[in-house]
Protein 1
Amino acid sequence: MKTYVAKKEDVKKDWYLIDAKDKVLGRLAVQIADILKGKNKVIYTPHVDTGDFVVVVNVEKMHFTGNKLLQKTYHRHSGYMGNAKSITLEEMMTKHPERVLMHAVKGMLPKSKLGRQMLKKLKVYKGSEHPHQAQTPKPIS
């Protein structure tokens, strides 16, 4: 018997809705990354995008373990001398809570074209409203 290799045409993409309220960031990011990769499907193939779309709402109500709100920092650099910038998790949650989850999930996906393609299937929103009702996403607890 030969190993089944999924093809792009064989993959059916579903939509899932996740409510981030009272969920821990890391555990939520792992769950989302597995769905985006397609690891929850029988036809999972590492070199084919077999994952589904994920819509996350209420991202501003996520929880963090330990003292991460004050101690965790995000760094970026423009490439110019002396232009390194740092921002704490607490500041990031007040300004852009969507980016916190996107950053965590991005680190759990492959660092390749396939990983960037998977990340495009993640839709993150503040509040409980989202513009994807037409796709009828299945809620996941």
Protein 2
Amino acid sequence: MMRTIRAEWLKLRRSPMWPVFLILPVLPAVMGTFNYLGNLGILRQQWYDLWSQHTIFSADFFLPAMIGAYCSYLWWLENRNHNWNSAMTAPVPVPCLYFSKLLFAGAAVAAAQAETGVLFLVSGKLAGVSGQVPPMLLRWLLLGTAAGFAVCAVQLFLSLVIRSFAVPVGIAFVGGIAGAIALSKGFGLWFPYSLMPMGMQSGNPSGNFTCGTGPFLLSCVSFLIVFSIASVLWLKKRDVRSE
């Protein structure tokens, strides 16, 4: 496994996608902050309202599309210059090839979530938000990261099956919008793209986490396992065809 992780790192260390993951979280932070400042007459919960404004943009639009783009890029590296031939004939178990990509995709999500938290705190100070920072902030970020791993598994599978860079990204973007709708209808646990706004409590940060942490994490792990197995089986099928 460490061998495939090192090989993946060599391919990704100068990747143009890392700056994208670092720059894009700034956009929902800026948009959310200006939206908050423009509605001070009706927003009374200070930090909670600012968080809601930030995450409405990030969890429903930017983060799903970012994950989709990064996962597409991970498989695009193999499609480029016929790298599949060397990848599938290397003395490396197929699951290791997949999980090394999942690890880096998840690491990118975790980095984006950490930046989201920092930008939230900085934006609040610049916007003059008073009061105590929500004690649940770390929990929101961690649950959002767990949900992000589940979305990574879905997008890695889609990007593996669909030999296109743009189509899986489009699916992720539409999935983020559909996830917000599914969450509003009470089906959030059953739709992977609903898990990020659910875990980050983007719609109701000051309220209770109604579904419970246990069912939420079970849903994340279930999507992660199902789509990871599907990806590994697809890769093994590809390996057989290549032989």
Protein 3
Amino acid sequence: MSTTNTMPVLDIVFKGLGVTAIQRGERGIAVLILKDSTEGDPKKYYKTIEDFGSEEQAKFTAENVLYVKDALEGIPLKLYVFKIGEEEKIEDKLVIIGGKIPRNCWIATNDDTFKTSLLTWVKAKVKNNKKRYKMLGFKLTGADDMHVTNFTNEKVTFSDKRGETTGDKAIPYLLGFLAGISINMSAIAFELAKFKSVVEPEELDTAIKNGEFVLFNDEGIVKVARAVNSLSTLGQDLTVEMTHINTVEKMDLIYCDIYTAWDKSYKGKYPNILDNQMLLISAINSYYKSLARDYILDPNFENISMIDIEAQRLANASKYGEDVVAEWSDEKVKEMTVSTQVLFQANIKISGIMEDFKFPIYM
């Protein structure tokens, strides 16, 4: 005998996700890929420096021990570390990595021989496999993507005994730092005491406009100049808001929440009729309200999902004819669901972070 539980289950899932969104967005997950042939497999992940004791450190070179500690210093929720030996190919390892890491995470390597393959892989996974990986890399070529952050300072000076080094050595720390930032804050809000100073690009504004993530010296304190990703080519469906790391973090949180709720609680479980579609829309809109209460979405905007009338009208045209469906009212179109397809659209406004300040004072 079948259960009596129906659509409210999904509503509970979405409400639960909405209520916990701010907690889940407090810190993200980081994935660090290192070149290391030392024997021994690392733990599945590290949550704190306590997890990375002498037994774990023995599985890495001395240099890589420092990199893992750097990444943990940024306080990500979890840190996954993968080693690739001298005789291994990163392309083979990425198959394993992709099966172990979560859908939404930061991922980086500071190895120059790995970064191009990692960049190609991340872009493909985001585009083709519904992943929401965010890559951090050093002086990447051909990035130009909202899910890729391109760090370009030529040199940094660490506050510890390492002193001045090339910029790629800062990648592990910046990985943990970016993953560890709350979803309602921007990277520019922090003083990076990890570094004593940095070598800045000649023109900070030009670098930022080109989609470069750079650090600068602000009266003796190292800070992030602007928390931007590498997206620089704007156009249809790619707006300036999407160049901001924080905006993409929120986009990815919402995407993964809706994808997960649909995949686990709804897909294949209910008849595709208008009543069930409206219940799903109601659940998603309740989720949006929860996000607005936490200022992930703008509470002063009507964040709402709805049936995509035009898409559904077009999808019905091949069966009933264009002339026929053109005469249907919007309500009739809603009723005429299309086989297994659920065709929704949404209007939402993601809250930005206060970064720019203009304040003319007239006297």
Protein 4
Amino acid sequence: MTRDEGEPSHKVAPFQNGIQGLEAGLCATLDRPYGNAYSFLPGKIHHPGPDEALVRLDYSGVCHGDVYGRDGGGPAPAQPQRPLIGGHEGVGMIIALGGNMSKHLGFEPGQTVGVAWRSNVCGTCDACRAGAENHCSSQKIVGMHRPGTFQHQLVRIPHSLNGAATCPILCAGVTAFAAIRMLEPEAGKWCVVAGAAGGVGHLAIQYAKKVFGLRVLAIDGGNPGKEAFCKNEGADEYVDFVDAGEDLVHIVREKTQGGADYVLVLSPVQSAYNAAGEFTRFRAKVMAVGIGNCHMPLRPILRKDLTIRSHETGTKKDIEDALQYSASGLIRCRIEVLKLNDLNKALDRLKGGQVQGKLVLDLRS
């Protein structure tokens, strides 16, 4: 999560294709083994290569993926990449471009762009050839494997969008949107969102309800304010899994008139996957999104002829489509804006399940 990779001085127009006069800001840098906090160190400005762009970042979302980058686990590599600048939900302005960026891809200095989850894909594996580069076996993840981005992962941001509220769409939003779209849902049916009050969850409620016309039951817990929050996002029903206890499956079946047609499992815990198989109806579809050392019990899959899918973030096309729903005003991300030096506390809050909506860092000051 860089504060900015070069911020123009008052003498340099922000849209000049050059880096003379730019001063590097502080960077939130991981320079110690997993489990240690970010350090805030002076950044360095590098001339972009032929297929690269230099972006002055204004905002960066804080994602649970960043917890893995700091503490390990989930998709993080077994051996941490250090030193490493974290973050993968960045929005900012192009300051300088390599030759291929303008010539072949149409990017220009001064454009507002987003820097998302993956920085590079191979383009040749089965997933890439199928147009599913989000499942590339050789992908490199921004803020986990490397601190930058290659040209094809820059995303143009519609002019009407606010930078701070746009950051989360680049990861949380596209993850929710693409996962639901992959289910090919029928309007009017029941979709259960497990882990509904967080960054991905509150956007999943909105996409399911407003874009796909589904009825939504939200599951979360641990805070009495989460019910009002989820219903404000559009949830028709809410179940607190803490209060429900062993009756969770029965309550969900009752509220959905027989069981869920679709389930998004966003919580990376085994109990969420156990319950998902039980409160579904016959031939329901379950989408595994929450990253954890979890499994789906086989018995309900066989008994109900369930379809189990998995999904990781989304393609560039998914991001562009998700952004258009935000640009139209249909989807609104609930954000809390923090300063860069609040980063470690923000990650601890995420890890403890103490966040409703999304946390965003303002990198401009």
